[in-house]
Amino acid sequence: MTDHHGAKLDFAKDMSYGDYLGLDALLDAQHPRSDAHDEMLFIIQHQTSELWMRLAIHELQTARNAISGGDLRPAFKMLARVARIFEQLNGAWDVLRTMTPSEYTTFRPSLGNSSGFQSNQYRMIEFLLGNRQVALKKVHEHKPEAHAVLEAELAQPSLYQVALSLLAQRLDVPDPAGEPSHSAWVPQPVIQDLWQQVYEHPRAHWELYELAEKLVDLEDYFRRWRFNHVTTVERIIGFKRGTGGTVGVAYLRKMLEVELFPELWHVRGAL
After folding, report:
1. Quick one: pLDDT at residue 240?
2. Terminus-to-terminus CA distance in the chain, angstroms?
3. Binning pLDDT at 50, 70 and 90, where does residue 138 land?
């Protein structure tokens, strides 16, 4: 059956918009544990963030494969997309910040010990990007499948290590990336020197130059997301301890000091 504009109206035997997107399950996934009006905002903000992170992981894994194979043009688009995903995640904090401390306290006890600190997808993103604080895997031991995914990621080089291997290959020098790391990346002067060659002669190394800037752009948006996380938490709960047991704002501020691609930031002072 169609209307006079030709739009299909009968979906008894065909896939509809809601069917394709699985909207019944998606829109039935919000289950507030209190009668507080603002708990729905809190749940949806975090659920949508997890959906964006799922896409970020998909893009980062494929970008890593493309860089490993020297196919940089599609990798550039994927890295740019991840940067914009974090721009969307930044916007989500703006919505959450409409909630006041008084409103949050009405349902905070319902959270128990649950916390964004326990997000296995966020940890996966950090592991992919090279911030591999392996001790934090323990947070996910109660979810064997998620824990196994993180273990599998640690057996692979990070996105940055793959980029460094390509950098060395293109500059015809020994690969400084090393084996898949089980710890946070530690900056190395030799790597900064290699990036400096690229930045001092961009026309001779244009693809590496663009790769470097795509990585910097990604980390820029990621840092903004972390900063907005800190300010949102401080605005809503002040300096209380987090529901997951961390020291809250103090812990989040410490995370602001983490550099994912340190040599790309340090080289700027050497140019």
Report:
1. 58
2. 67
3. confident
Write the secondary structure of the chain as one string of H (helix), E (strand) and C (coil). Answer: CECCCCCECCCCCCCCHHHHHCHHHHHCCCCCCCCCCCHHHHHHHHHHHHHHHHHHHHHHHHHHHHHHCCCHHHHHHHHHHHHHHHHHHHHHHHHHCCCCHHHHHCCHHHHCCCCHHHCHHHHHHHHHHCCCCHHHHHHHCCCHHHHHHHHHHHCCCCHHHHHHHHHHHHHCCCCCCCCCCCCCCCCCHHHHHHHHHHHHCHHHHHHHHHHHHHHHHHHHHHHHHHHHHHHHHHHHHCCCCCCCCCCCHHHHHHHCCCCCCHHHHHHHHCC
- Whole-prediction pTM: 0.91
Strand partners for 8? 2
The structural domains of the chain, with segments of one domain joined by +, span 33-161+183-269
Question: Which numeric CATH code is attached to 33-161+183-269?
Answer: 1.20.58.480
Q: What is the pLDDT of residues 22-81, one digit of tens each?
A: 999 999 999 999 999 999 999 999 999 999 999 999 999 999 999 999 999 999 999 999
pLDDT at 230: 83
Decide if pLDDT at 251 tops 70.
no
| pLDDT exceeds cutoff 50 at 128 | yes
CA–centroid distance for 6 within its chain: 42
